[in-house]
Amino acid sequence: MNNLATLPDSAPFAPAERLLLQDIIGRSSPEQRSWLSGFLAGWQASSPVAALAAAAAPRNPLTILFATESGNAEALAQQARKSANRLGFAARLLDAADATPEKLAQAGTLLAIVSTWGEGDPPQRATDLFAALAAETPNMAGLRFAVLALGDRAYAQFCATGRWLDERLQALGAERVAARLECDLDYEALAANWLRDTLATVAPKQPAGTEVIPLPLTRDAEGWSRSRPYSATITDHVRLSGSRSNADTWHIEVDLEGASIAYEPGDALAVLPENDPGLVEAVLAATGLAGDVELGEALRYRYDITTLTAPQVAAHGELTGDARLAGDETWRDGRQLLDLLEAVPHRLTTPQLTGLLRPLPARSYSVASSRKAVGETAHLLVAALRYESRGWARQGVASVDIAGRRRAGGQVKLFLKPNTHFRLPTDPNRPVIMIGPGTGVAPFRGFLQEREAVGAPGRNWLLFGHRNYTHDFLYQLDWQDMLKSGVLTRLDVAFSRDQPEKRYVQHALWDARRELHAWLADGSALYVCGDATSMARDVQATLLRILADQRGLDADGAAAALDMLRREGRYLRDVY
Q1: Burial of 242 by CB count in 10 Å (0-12 exposed, 13-18 middle, 19+ buried)?
Q2: Per-residue pLDDT for 22 more than 90?
Q3: pTM of the model
Q4: How far apart are alpha carbons 375 and 386 in whole angstroms?
Q5: Which CATH number fits domain 277-356: 3.90.1640.10, 1.20.1270.10, 3.40.50.300, 1.20.990.10?
Q6: In whole angstroms, what is the distance from residue 400 CA to residue 379 CA?
Q7: How far, in whole angstroms, is CA 358 from its chain's centroid?
Q8: b vs e for 431-464, b when ≥16 Cβ sit within 10 Å of the residue's Cβ?
Q9: Among 186, 256, 273, which residue's Cα sits nearest to residue 3?
C-alpha cells in the first residue's frame, strides 16, 4: 500500500472511518490532496476553537528551554512552541547551550524539556548551564516553571537531569506550576498530554464566562515519525568487512524517492527494527504462551523484549510472588528479559506479559552520504553486534536485523532524526578535522561528499581506526579516491591489531600533535563520532594533552582551551 494512504492505528477515527479515509486519500490525485489540505486549513482557522485561541489576549511571554542529546527534547520543544503560540502565548525557544541562570530567572514562565545522557549527566550542550545553576544561587522567586524529563529506564539514573533541575529551581525560589513528568523511550503520547495540560494551566486568563478549549499539541502533518515511519526499499546491501574480520559491517542504501526526507550531513535515520523470531519464540515458551500467533506478531514488531530494567524485575516479582531478584542490580547487570523469565519461571497471561514490556525503540544510524552526491537515497553503515554475556550469545536488535536478516529489495521502516548541532561549518573555507573510528566514520563520508559537491575550498583531515588494515578498512577506496582528487587533504589511520602494541586513533592524534595544533590555530572545526564509553573519553584526554604540550598549559588551562573550542562551535561530538 502507498505510504500516503496508510493511517496509523492511533489516528482519532473508528476502524471503518480509517479504512474509508485511506481509500479516499490513496485514490486521490496530488491536485485533489492539495485542495483538501487547503480547505481543511481554512476551515480550522475559522473554527470556534481557533477563534478562541486567537482571541486569547494578552500574548504572555513563555520560554521553552530544551536540553537535548539526540534531538528528542528539541523536537518536543518546537512542537510545544507551535501549540503555545496558538493558545495566545508569545513563546520562544531557548537552547540550554545559550542559557544562563540569569536568563532563566527573567523568563517569567518556563517550560523545561530536559534529556538525561549516559549515567545521569546533562546533555553535552547543557553542561555549562547546569554547572552554573549548581554553583550560583540566583533569586528565582519571580519564575513559574514546569519540567518534562526524558530518559531511559535501562540506565540506573533514569531522568536524573530533569529531576535535578526541577528540584534545583524550586530550591532557588521558583514556583512549580505542574508536577514533573518523567518519560521513558515511549514518551510521545505522555509528553503530548503533559504539554497540552501544562500549557492550559499557564495559559493567559480569559474574560469571565469565556470557555477556553486547549488545543492539541501540533506536529508537522508531512513528517515521518516513530508512530508513522516511512517504508523504504533497500537498494544495496554490501558487506564491507573482510571474510576474516572479527567485525560484521555492512554498507546499506535505501531509496527515499518521494519521501521528502531532506537529511543533511550529520543527521541520522532512526530505524524501527524487528525482534529476532527465535527470541520471540523463546519468550513465548518461557511464559507458557507458545503458539499464540497474534502475541508473537506483537512481540516481534511492537515490544522491546531484550532490555531488562529494574522496574521490570520488580513488577515481575509482584506478578509471580517471587521478588528475590528485585533490587539486585548485580544480578541484572548484563542480563536480558529472557534471563528473568527463565530464572523465575511463571505462566503469564498476555496482558501480564505485555504489561511488563515497553515499546520497541527505534535505533539511530548516522547517514553516510550527502544528497547532493547521491540524490534521493541514503547510505547507512551498520555493524552487526554479536557478543557473549553471562554465558549466553547475545545480539543487537536493530544491527543484526538490518545487517543480518535484511537483503536488497526488502523494506525497512525509518524516519529522520536531525542533528542540528553536528553540522559542517557554514564557512566553506574553514578546515575540518574528523575523528571517526569504526562505524563512527559514517557521517564524515557524508561530510566529504558534501564538501566535494559544493566545491568547498577548506582543507579536510580524517582520522580513522579499526582492528586490521586488510579486513577492516571501511570505505578504503572512497578515501583513496578523495585523496587523489584533493577533497581529502590528509588521512591518518590506526589499526589496533596490526602490531604487537595496540594502536588507536588517540595515538595517531598524539603523533600528529604539532600539525593538529597548527590546524586548530588556523580555525579548524574538530569533530568526533563514535563510542562514548572509551574512544571519545580517550580522544578527549589526548586533546587535552596536546593543548597542554603545544601551548605550555597546565591541566586547568588545557581544559579551558578545549572548552573554548566547544563554546566557539569548533569542538563537536556525536558519541553514543
Answers
A1: middle
A2: no
A3: 0.85
A4: 33
A5: 1.20.990.10
A6: 17
A7: 17
A8: bbbbbbbbbbbbbbbbbbbbbbeeebebbbbbbb
A9: 256
